[in-house]
Design goal:
This protein has 451 residues and is an alpha/beta fold. It contains 16 helices and 19 strands. The strands form four sheets. Strands 9-8-11-10-12-13-14 form a seven-stranded mixed sheet, sandwiched between helices. Strands 2-1-5-6-7 form a five-stranded parallel sheet, with helices on both faces. The radius of gyration is 26 Å and the shape is elongated. The two termini are 31 Å apart.
Length: 451
Amino acid sequence: MKSLTSLFEAQSVAVVGASDDPHKLGGRPIAYMKRLGYQGQLIPINPKTSVVQGLAAKPSLEALDAPVDLAVIATPEKFVEGIIKQGLACGIKNFVVFASGYAEINEEGINKQQQLEALFKGTDARLLGPNCLGFINTETQLVASFTTAMEHHPLKAGGLSFAGHSGALGAYWLDKTIRANLGVSKWISSGNEVNIQLADIVEYLARDPQTAVICLYIEEIRQPEKFEQALLLAKQQGKPVIAMKGGKTTAGARATQAHTASNPFNGADYQAIFDNTDVIEVASLSEMIRYSEFYLGENQLLGQRIGLVSISGGAGVMLSDQLTEAGFCISDFSDDLCQKVRPLLSDFSALQNPIDLTAALVAEPDMLKNVTNELIESEEFDAIVIFMGLMDSIADKLAAGVIELKKNPNCPIFLIWMGGQKQLLVKISEAGVMVFEEIPELVALMSKLAK
């Protein structure tokens, strides 16, 4: 994995096709890294000028004083092969190619891609792409990408990483992490995978100390055995993998061929691989972000025993039905737990699971925190679900109580608050409690999380 480390953690970068215009393909990586404070050496390559965006430029890779760790090639396709030959000749080991026009378009493009691939055979040099959006490393603020997702907002550094065959979907994923205030470690667009394939990237992320959770968008699994081994390594390292799979239908497969020259029907049984490695398959980026939030909070759902706390008898009924139908257990309290909870409830509340706090909560807002803490400490449940609705007059007190709940990663807390005040829900979420608007959304998530 040494070569991928030197790629994704490059300490010196040359941008070929560098532009003074920060909005152009060859200008964006430089503008991003300057603005964000990239910690390494940054060298623009442009034969027509000696200064690009205030940085001293070189006319070619051959003119470098020493080989850089990474050459980012932001030129049209017709120049790419010559630039790579030049870079290899002067000792550069890592390349990123943005250009399209290869196997995804026609027979001529296939031939060009094969010629590109041949340049790396018998060498230890690596190529990410072509036809990709590059990658980002927030630890060093290395932005070898022209994505527009970061135009107005820097990425928060953290433990969530993404790799996938679609740069655009990856950009939408980045936008969602920004909106959800989630910290990102690595973001990698693999494109046509001439030299570096998704299996290689997953293996790298599984070993990456900064990565805690791995998100994937997959079209073709080109090396099934290696890919499965990489996923198993992630599992062994305690890093959950959340994946979207594209090209599962004939129409979808046809679209992937024009997208990244992928063939989803290559014989790889992705479902068996996912099952063997505990990959969570999702159908949307929003769902992917939801699962990421759970795991980044260092939570785990180890069983099916659920404790329910509600301010609505009807909501308690609906939760009980839907969770039971999903395979969860809404069991009775032990005698010991009953004795501890009874003094905390009003005379109108039945001592059962689910607990209905009733309208008495309005006069005693601390009831929610006190009752829920008893359920957490009892160790009789694998998760606690709280249902609330409206309650504007005491919303601040209720929110404070939820935030103060005792944290136990083996008994995560989920909150459904219908009509809750947005700013309070954000505060609760930032405190590590997952917040939902509807019961089915929560049940669907819990169904995939349960072990």
